[in-house]
Amino acid sequence: MSGKFHFAIDRGGTFTDIWCRLPNGSVRQMKLLSEDPKNYKDAPREGIRRIMEEFLGCSLPAEEKLSPSRIAWVRMGTTVATNALLERKGERMALLVTSGFKDLLYIGNQARPNIFDLKVQTPDTLYDRVVEVEERVVVHENVKLVSHSTGNAPRMDKTITGEKVEVWTELNRDRLRSDLQDVYNSGIRSIAVILLHSYMYDKHEVLVREIAEEIGFTQVSLSSVIMPMCRAVPRGHTACVDAYLTPSIKRYVDGFATGFEGGLENLNVMFMQSDGGLTGALRFSGAKAMLSGPAGGVVGYAATSNYEKTGTPVIGFDMGGTSTDVSRYAGSYEHVMESYTAGITVQAPQLDINTVAAGGGSRLFFRSGLFVVGPESAGAHPGPVCYRKGGHLTITDANLVLGRIVEEYFPAIFGETQDQPLDKSASVQAFQQLTDEINNFLSTQKDVEKKTLSIEEVAVGFLTVANETMCRPIRALTTGKGYDTSKHVLACFGGAGGQHACAIAKSLGMSQVVIHKYSGILSAYGMALADVVSEQQRPFNSSYLPENMPRILKEIEELKDVTHRELLAQGFSTQSIFYDIFLHLRYRGTDCALMCSAANQLSENSPPLEYQEFLDTFLLKYQTEFGFTIPGRDIIVDDIRVRSVGKYISRQEPDLPASQPGSQPIPEKIVKCYFDTLYQDTPIYLLTRLQPAHKISGPALIIDQNSTILVELGSEATMTSKGDLIIQVKSCKQVVIGTDLDAIQLSIFSHRFMSTAEQMGRVLQRTSISTNIKERLDFSCAVFGPEGGLVANAPHIPVHLGAMQETVQYQIRTLGDKIREGDVLLSNHPKAGGSHLPDLTVITPVFVPDSKKPVFFVASRGHHADIGGKTPGSMPPNSTTIYDEGAVFKSFKLVKGGIFQEQEVTDELNAPAQYPGCTGTRNLADNISDLRAQVAANQKGINLITSLISEYGLEVVQAYMTHIQNNAEVAVKDMLKEVAESAISSHGTSVLSAEEYMDDGSLIKLTVSLDKDEGTAVLDFSGTGYQVSGNCNAPRAVTLSAVIYSLRCMVGHDIPLNQGCLKPVTVNIPTGCMLDPSEEAAVVGGNVMTSQRVVDVIFKCFKVCAASQGCMNNITFGDGTLGYYETVAGGAGAGPCWHGRGGVHTHMTNTRITDPEIVERRYPVVVQSFHLRPGSGGCGTYNGGDGVQRQLLFCKPMILSVMTERRIFSPYGLEGGSEGKKGRNLLLRHDGVIINLGPKQSYPVQPGDVFHMETPGGGGWGPPGVSGHHGTPSLDHSLRSTSALSSGLGGGSLYTYQRLQESA
To answer: What mean pLDDT comes out for the span 899-906?
Structure first.
C-alpha cells in the first residue's frame, strides 16, 4: 500500500459517506450532508479536505485547491444522475426519431403505471422538442412481396448481424440540417437519436451525428451506440436518459475536479456504474449511472460475505431513510438488462437491485381498520416527527418510542439551531393521537380481541407490518426464482437496517445475519473493493448452433479487443484483465431471453470457449428459473456481450487484536426497550469497544457512529476477527393469537394471504410455457374461503378482479360433496363465472386432516392463446354463439384422485371441431403444459395455506380471512357514505342514474341508490338492453369485475380486494339482458369491450370523471401459419382536477403493445406510423386525452379482424366538457380504394394494403376556458391522494415483473 490517501465515497441524496485508507494504513470514516451550501460547495471534495487536513495536521483552506500528489485514487458513486432524473433537472434536449413515430416514447408500451389511478400520472418526457427524421429502413425477410410505392426497387444493404434490410426512404439530409439548426437556435445543445432498426443498421444514425456535430451540438446520444439491442422504445428511452443526464454528470465531474490542482489531469478518479464496475471519470455516462450508489453496497457485501468459503448465498438488505434495496449474490453478480427508474425504462446492464418503499422515513397510517406503512415517505424534509420540523409519523418515530433508538447516541443536528437531539416527546405525542384514533375505531367493532391498545403496542404493530412489507420482495427474489429463502444469509447494511435485521431474518426462516463493521457506509466501502469494468455489446440474431460457433467466437474476439484496449489505456496490464463472456439466449418463439455466461471468468491465456458451455448454462438457468426446458426447440442468440474486468489487488482488512480469554463485553448503560408486551432491560454496547469472540445475547443494542443494531430476544451476536458481527437468529415461541380481531395481526394476515397469491403467480409464470402466461403474464392467482368468497387476488388484472369468486362458488353449488381431496377443477363457461373462453380457471380445494369439506380453495386463471373456435386466437369478431369461440368447460375434473386427466381434457379441447367453420385447439401442447403449470401453482398455494394453518391453527386463519373481508367492507362503506352525503349536498338526492349506448344501439342503464347512514348501495342495471346476436354480451362475472374496479378507483387508496368490497353493494342484473346473457350467447366482445362501457356508465353515474376511450381496439391478423393480436391505446377521460392522459390504455385493460421493431422482425407487416391523434380529446376546463393513429402495411395475404367500440357514439364529457372524438377503422387498399371497416369486421388483405386505425379520445371536464374545481368533492380528495409513482416496488426485476403483471 502506497503512503497515500485512498478515498471511496458514496454521495447519496441526503448524506455523503466517505471511507478513507490513510497513508499509515488505518481507516477513517466520515459522514457529511450532501447539500450544505453555507459551509461548502461539494460534499465529496470537502470530506477529502477535512480528512487530509486532520491527518496531515496542517491547514487546508476550503477556498484553495487541493494537491492530488498525496492521493492514490478517488472512487465515487453518486446519485447526481438519479436525482436529476427524479426531479427532472437534467439538460434540455431534443429527440430525433423516424418520421411517423414522433410520440413513440410518450406512448411507450401504452400501459399505465397504476391501474387504479384515474389521473394516469406519469412522469414528464425528458425531451423538449421532437424532430421527425425522414428515413425508413425495414427488414427484408418479411417485406419481399410488397412493391415499393414509387415502383422502384428499394436499395438493399447489409447489417452488422449479416441480415439484409431495404432502405425504403433515404435520409433527407437537407431537411434534417434545417430542422437541427432550428433546434440549435432554440438553445438546445443535447440530442438523442432513435431510428427504427438502428441497433443492427446504424448508418443513418451515424449520418445524423455527423450533421449534428457540424452544427455544434455538444452531446449526441445515438441509440445504436448506447445500447444496440432490439426494441425501439426502451432503446430510445435509454438514449434520452444518456442525452439528458450525461451533460449534468460532466458538469459535476468538472466541478469536482476544479477543487484540485490540475483538475483531472493528475487525479485518478473512478466512478461506480450501475453494473457494479468502476469506470474512468471521462467515460462515466448518464445511461450507466442510475444505480451508481446502491451498486457499491452490492459489491461491498458480495466481497465481504465469505461466499467463496461457505457457499451460502446472500440476500443484501440495505435499509435507508426512504426505501429499502434488496438484492441477491451467489458467487456472481445478478444483472438485468432493463429496469424502470423514475418513470423511464433504461436498457443497460444493471445489478438486479429491487427497491421496496419502506424505509426509516416511511409514513404510518391507520385506514379503515388496517395498519399501513408507506409507500409515502416523510423524506429528509420535513422528515419524521422527531426531527423537529413538523414532520410525519414514521418507522423512525416507532423505533424511538420503543427505546430502540437512543437520543443521546443519535447526532444532535436538529431544531432551528441544528444542535438539538431527537424529540422523543413529540413522537410520543403523535403516537398518542394515532393510538386514540385506533382505539376509537376498535371500540365500534365487534369481536375485537383488545378494545384498547397502548402507544407501545401500536408502535410494535407498525414495525411488524413494516417488516412483513420488506419480507415480500425477498420471498419473490428467492422463492419466486426457484431458491429456498431459508438457505440464505441476510447481509444487513444501511443506516436503518440494523434495527430490523433480526426480525426480517426470523420471518424468512433465516438463521444468520451478517453486519459488516462498515455497514453504515458499506456502499462507500464497496467502491474501494470494486474492479474497473469495460463493456461492449453487439446484436447477433442467429441460431445457437455448432456451425455458427466460429462466427460467434470471432465477434467475441472483436469485442474483447475493444475492451482490452480501453483497460490498457487505464493502466492495467494484460495479466490483470479478465473477461466475462455472455450470450443473450432465448428459445425461438419466446421473448424470455437469459443472459448466459461461460462457466468461468476468462483470462488472456484461457482455452477457447466451447459450444457446450453456453448451452449448459442456458439449460440450467432455464430449468432453475422456469422449472423445465423445451427439448428440440431452436435457441436464438439475440446479443453478444463482453464484460472485461481490470482487477485491483485489494488489501484485506487486518485482524483485530484478540480478546483476552474469558473477557466479557461491558455495556455502556442499561435502557428500557419495549418487546412484544413489556419493557425489558436492554444493555447498550459500542461497536468500537467490542473485541473478537465477544458474544452478546439479546435483547441488546449495539451502536456505532452510523447505525444502531438491535439484537432481539433469543438471538446472539458474535464479533469476528475482522470486527464484523454475525448474529445467530433463533426462533422465538410463536405468540398465541385468538380468533377475535387484533388490528395488528389483521395487517399481517393481509400481507400473508396476498403473498400466497403472489407466490402462486411466480410458480405459474416459472412453469408455464406459452408466451401469454410466461411473458405477457396474462393470469391471476387467488385464495378463497370455504364458501368461495375471495380472500386475496394477485396480480390486479382489472377484468379478473372478483370474477374468479363467481367461478369457485358455482363449483361449490354444482358439485357440493363431490369435491374431494386430490381433485382439481377446470372451468371457463360464462354462466360458471367465466370471463371469456380463453381464460381457463383451474380450482383446487384445500383440505386439512380430519376435514370432510374444503377449508379453503385456491385458483389460477390464465389466458390461453388458442382453445379452438372460428379463428386463431379464439377471439372471432363475428361469433354468434359461444361454440364459435372455442372449447367450453363448466365443471370439468382436470385431476381426479391425484391423476391428471390428459386424454379427457385433450378430447374437450378438440371438441369445437364438431361445429361448422370451427376447429379444435391449434396449440394443444401449450394448453396441456399451461394447465399443468396452473395445477402446480395451486399446489404452491395449498402448501403455503397449510403452513399458515400449522403455524396459527385453522380457526385463527379462517377467522382472519373473515376479518380481512370485513375490513374491505368497512373501506367501501366509508367511501359510499361520503359519496352519498356529497350527492345529497350537490343534487338533493342519493339516487343517481346514467345510461350509455353501445355502437350497435344496445342500452346500458344504471340506477344507484345510496344509503348514507349504512354506507351501502344498490346498483340496478334494469332497463339494460337484451342479449345481442353478436358477441358483445358480457358475462355477469365481468360486470362484477367492472364494479369492483370502479369501487377501488373511487376509494383512492390500497384496500384488500376481496368479496368484502361487494358486501355493501347489491348488484341487480336482469336475467337475459346483455350483462347476463343465456348459456349459449357469444361473449368474447363483452369481455374486451362491454366491460369498458360498464365502467363508463358507473363513473358517469357517480360523476367521477369523463369517459375514456371506452374500448380496447382489438386487432388480429393471420393465416394458417401465423397469428397476431394486439390492443391499441386511446385517450383517458379528464376529471375534476386533472387532464386526461393521451395514448394510454384505460380501465379494464392495461395490455402492453408490441414494440414496432419486434412486430416487423416477426410478422409480415410494416408499422408505418404510430403517434397521437392531436385534438381528439374533448375540450374543457380539463381536457380529455388524445387517441392515437396507427397504420399497419401488410406484406402477404392474410385475414384482418377488428373488434372496437366508440365508432358510432363519442366518449362523453362531464360538467360542461365536450365529447372526445370517435374512432374509425379504414382499409387503404393497394389499388387506391379506401374502405370504412366499421366497428367490427373481418376482411381479407393483400400485400400493399394498409390498415389505418384512429382510436377515440377521452371526454373533457368542465366548461372550456373556465378555471375552477367541479364534481364530487369527496371523490376529488381521495383521487388526489392516489399516486402513480408511489408503487411498493421500484427498479430491478421484481418491479419489472409487477408492472408486466399489471399490464397483462
So the answer is: 92
